[in-house]
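FORM 7B - TANDEM STRUCTURE REPORT

SECTION 1: FIRST PROTEIN
SEQUENCE AND TOKENS:
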Amino acid sequence: MVDRLVHSEANHRRIAIVEQCFGSNGQSLTKTGRVLVGEGVLTKMCRKKAKPRQFFLFNDILVYGNIVIDKRKYNKQHIVPLEDVKIQSLENDGPWKNGWQVISPKKSFAVYAASPTEKSEWMAHINKCIADLLANSNKRPATEHAAVWVPDSEAQTCMHCLKVKFTPIQRRHHCRKCGAVVCGGCSNKKFILSYQSDKPVRVCITCYEVLSNSVPDKDKSSMIRPDYESASASVWNSDEQLNDDDTASGGSADGGVSARGGMGTSDPIITPQPRYGSSDEEEDDIELPPGSLPESHPQFYDFGTTEVLIS
């Protein structure tokens, strides 16, 4: 069905409408062979809270953004290439139901659908797109993935030392390797995670020890950065501004993703729980309390429908 939709006028029209809804700040989504497979609203667990996001599933990328005017205008466009993605179902946890994790080398996060049926539909379509991409490109699935960040609200004390309580002065930090919320003293090291970025990023002292022990001595000087206390304050402050704050990150419509956001691996030291989120969202939009997931009514276009949800 996707092959049939590639050259259809309906597919071209849908993609053009999505581009219009993101406006001039969004990247072009038109590409030879690209098909809009489906769209709908999902609840995304962000660093500080759960928020509704409009998602667009293409046959090669997953796009989402903030909802400014429903079905009319979106901003903060994010693009995740599907060839590097794997998804993992989450068990229901109290009010948080029908969720799964979207995991990739650059960015990982949890999302929730409004019903088990919607969850099943989304996961089936995403998995089908991933399988088709890998089969057609002869590429192998990514082996290293970004950690899904623990939301700030899940940690009142440092998850590493279990002693430091977070306050307006004693701020939270996230380890880019495992996603844990840690204090400054327990995350005073930097390390280059090559699959994520060519710049050193903050990691907790446990992950730092594991990472540094895995690197040959001759390469350590290029991978490791000084302790927080001995490093330039301006350098560390700029790193926190880029990586710890809830800022928007874009990506390439051809498959690239910004290096901003959560960082880690597919084998985290601290196992993520269902409510874990990501670091890329701003604080100026809707917060969803537990048990109030939006009715999303997703639309998938690979079953012969010609309906366009956005008009």
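SECTION 2: SECOND PROTEIN
SEQUENCE AND TOKENS:
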Amino acid sequence: MTLKAWSTERQIILIYTDIFSIKHKDAKVINTKNDFNRIFVIEDKNGVRYTCLKPDAQKMPKMTSHFKTLKAKSAPLNYLTPYFTGKRTK
């Protein structure tokens, strides 16, 4: 997960990067019933939820590597629709 934050005079804008390396501005983190070790869920202003990878995602005992984000091209065709109106950014 990449988390960037900057502030203007009155607000703080957060940018989260989901598992497909697509950035989402001003989304909020959703509290889930169970706490996950590797991921968290965000929700945008339209109510669409996305999965993000925690920066310190631990590996499982049987895994040989840490979790990594995927390429934006790997996202399903309708991943950001009907709300997406522009070009995907990395």
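SECTION 3: OBSERVATIONS ON SECOND PROTEIN
The beta strands are 3-7, 12-17, 23-25, 28-30, 39-43, 49-53.
Residues 3-58 form one domain.

SECTION 4: SIGNATURE
Preparer initials: ____
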